[in-house]
Amino acid sequence: MASKLLVVDVHTHLYLPRYASLLRERTTLPKIITRTRDDGRKDERLVILKDEPSGGRPIGPSYVERDEKLTFMKKHGIDISIVSTANPWLDFLQPKEAHQLSLQLNDDLEEYCSTGPTVTGTSMKQLYGFGLLPIVSGISTESLLEAVRQISASSHLKGLIMGTRGVGKGLDDEALDPIWAAISEAGLAVFLHPHYGISKESWGAKNNGHVLPLALGFPMETTIATTRLILSGVFDRFPSLRLLLAHSGGALPQLSSRLASCIDHDPIVASRLKHDARFYLGKLYLDAVCYGPEELGFVSDVIARSNRYETGSKNVASGGRSSGSGRMLFGTDHPFFPPLSSSERWKSVVENLDAIENVQGWTEADKNGVKGGNAISLFNL
Ligand code: 5CU
């Protein structure tokens, strides 16, 4: 019962020291650069996205130091964090280096979590992690499977974080079938997270900083990658695959009926799928990083209605908003989007917790589930 009251952050990032050192050594993107300010002090900046305004964003200890993560958690009442390496993971490396580094970083992350503190009064740790696969172009299936086995054997790693490129052709590439099979069999969750956004030509010539790529490009990338997974039949072939989508699944919930209609009008695609596209949304898990109660309520409804779209189900009623909440999980996106002063509480935490609190039709138990109970069940903490 106590577990229902714990707050668990499933969307919280880090760069492990080994990874940060690699970024510091690099001269091409992604990289960490050091600038000397007017007052002579040195200042590190992280450049991970193409065409970043003002030479990247400040990067401080919050990206790397475990104590900073724990201080942030304490300040905001977060009991447990499932931490993951932030984008762009190993995407920019050659297969050999990606393979070696994935194994090292997974070991580093296991140690980061296992040697951390315990939640008072429980046997649960405060830190768990999502590991990394060396999922880059040219990698062998065996190297990917080796990383899946390693993560599975690491008791504090509860899944893995993955971008959308796959081994070069996206996640709907059949070459990944043995990986989906191994991940499903191991009972690991996959946290699907964007990095590339969509083509910068879409953003026009005005300087809008990071707003368009982050607010729209990131979620659209997740929307497209997940839709391609649905269309490829991955969820029919691997029905126990547990996929957690960043940023509440982007635009997919809003577009899911349109998607179903387009599939209906395309017999070749329709004949590939066992169910109406809307059914598959009920197989997903979505973080609750969308900052507004109305958006969370809507996403919850879309998950709740999914059972109506299972082939063969006749006149099944929607499960109701409450039932959709069971697949939604609180997150912060820390250490991205920091406040301007160090004494402030982070808006990304305050707004996402307030949003959960204010969803119409969610009971106290639903809200506690989204804040932490669902994560405790999903990751078997
Ligand atoms: O601010 C950003 O660029 C990001 C990012 O790159 N990754 C992420 O998870 N959140 C924000």
Automatic annotation (TrEMBL):
UniProt record, GO biological process: secondary metabolic process
Cytoplasm is among the record's keywords: no
UniProt GO cellular component terms: cytosol
Record keywords, A-Z: Decarboxylase, Lyase
Domain Amidohydrolase-related: 9-259
An annotated Gene Ontology molecular function: hydrolase activity
Domain of life, per lineage: Eukaryota
UniProt cross-references to Pfam families, sorted A to Z: Amidohydro_2 (PF04909)
Listed transmembrane segments: none
Matches recorded under InterPro entries: ACMSD, Amidohydro-rel, Metal_Hydrolase
Gene3D superfamilies: Metal-dependent hydrolases
Family per record: Belongs to the metallo-dependent hydrolases superfamily.
Name listed for the protein in its UniProt record: Amidohydrolase 2
Lineage: Eukaryota, Fungi, Dikarya, Basidiomycota, Agaricomycotina
